[in-house]
User: Fold this.
Amino acid sequence: MSSQSPAIEFRHVSIGFDDKPALEDISLRLERGRMICITGVSGSGMSVLLRLAGGLLRPDEGQVLIEGRQIEGLDEQELLALRSAAIGIVFQEQALFTGMTVYDNTAYRLDEHGWPEDEIQQAVGEILSFVGLDEDTDKLPEELSIGMRRRLEFARALVGWPEIMLFDEATSGLDPLNARVILDLVIRARDIHGISSLYVTKELHEIPYLADQCAVKDATGEISIRSIKADKVDESTIGEGVDKCSVIVLEQGRAVFSGTPAEFEASDLPVVLRLTHPASSAPSSDAYIPDPWSQSKTPYE
Assistant:
């Protein structure tokens, strides 16, 4: 596989279930170290797209390539090996092992793939420090808060630093402050570790945050989350420039918008306006909600 190939590429991908189309003619390129935010109303095909990107489904038509390898040409063992080595997935549903400690939950995938114990300890220690759970290694999931359990989900997916991350409504069910913590972890993974990601969300206020904020490491190794615009961040400190985020809108299985977050916010396409400016007379659970975060508050740890 070529290091120049996109992390993930869809070429005219379609898939259906029970003779009903779920996605139709989807093409996208997730470049390395970049992020695509995918949004739309419920049932538009966002989760199906993520499962295709993770090799959990195979398309009926078109091609899905992961790091330059076409998944349709791989047998189940080859696909499992590629997915395990290259991809971390955070699903909306909790998938923790309730009878395992924080450490064992995090180490599970590495242990299953035969990593040496000393390398597992190093990788688990690093990722638990990254998500702020390094002092909770012996706790069971039931002893953790909701926000801490969500960070443990991230640790399980990020351990070993996969090249690609897939996020399915990663902040679902969290209060705004804990959601902010999770988004900052996503940004740090992207900017500090160069992880490529597909980020599904119906919380539209998350998109400008992910686009405007960046993670910067100073000379002492301290990492901070800063606004690219407000703080005039030097682009050389965060890799290949600041344009690391784009947006795709799905409607009834089709990609009806693709562009930058600024273009998304300014778009007058009817499908985008229905998301960003829903009619006041027709409230919807998928309606745009103004950013509830206050920059003056500090997220809970």
User: Anything to note?
Assistant: The chain has nine helices and twelve strands. The first helix runs from residue 46 to 53. The two ends are 39 Å apart (CA to CA).
